[in-house]
Write a structure and sequence with these properties.
Radius of gyration: 18 Å
Number of helices: 7
Distance between the termini: 37 Å
Number of strands: 0
Largest sheet: none
Strand content: under 5%
Oligomer: single chain
Order of helices and strands: HHHHHHH
Low-confidence stretches: none
């Protein structure tokens, strides 16, 4: 009997949504410093999920998605978890100040990479998936500016925008994950995903 491997993308998208939603709480001011350690715990859970997702996607030849999940698991999940826990320890255990400038430069590298890779999603992914990536791009720009102490008086405007973008990105991730699951289970379109935003001219005229 021939073995057909299932796609791990839905699980990876739920982990992505968990990261988005938890950071919504942070940037919306709903998660205080006391919640940073538990935030790190949830990100560690996402790290475990995305290790498997990245590995399987790359093994299946999914170049773009596999590599995005690969650096998401390392930096968004694992580094994010360690960072959140370290901030908690600095605030409430060691009682020592910390500076996020280095973290800002790290997020800058991730942000530039994701923005430059986004056209690939616009060309190959369904519309809600690609839109989730675009909203993540916008949110990450705000994260970089925040961690590099560049927001100043604009913080009261930019932080809610970051929270809204992350909420939209996470919700779209859950929608795509649910569409993949339900459409596969029922063998028909239960939740539509649509075609990519960028389509070949030959396809448009077919």
């Amino acid at each position: 009997m021939e073995h057909h491997a299932a796609s791990p993308t839905p699980g990876g998208l739920v982990a992505f949504a968990v990261a988005c939603y938890t950071f919504v709480g942070v940037f919306a001011g709903l998660v205080p410093g006391e919640g940073l350690f538990l935030l790190g715990c949830w990100l560690l859970g996402g790290f475990v999920v995305q290790i498997l997702v990245a590995s399987k996607e790359i093994d299946h030849g999914v170049q773009l998605g596999g590599n995005v999940f690969l650096f998401f698991q390392g930096f968004f999940m694992l580094t994010g978890a360690i960072s959140s826990m370290a901030k908690y320890l600095c605030l409430y255990v060691w009682e020592t100040p910390f500076n996020t400038m280095a973290e800002g430069f790290g997020w800058l590298a991730c942000t530039i990479a994701l923005i430059l890779w986004t056209p690939g999603y616009l060309k190959t992914a369904n519309k809600p998936f690609a839109a989730a990536v675009v909203f993540t791009d916008v949110a990450l720009i705000g994260v970089v500016l925040n961690d590099m102490y560049l927001l100043g008086a604009a913080a009261s405007i930019v932080k809610p925008v970051v929270a809204i973008c992350l909420a939209i990105a996470g919700t779209l991730g859950i929608y795509v994950a649910s569409a993949i699951q339900l459409n596969s289970c029922f063998g028909r379109t239960v939740l539509p995903l649509g075609s990519p935003w960028i389509r070949d001219k030959a396809t448009d005229h077919a």
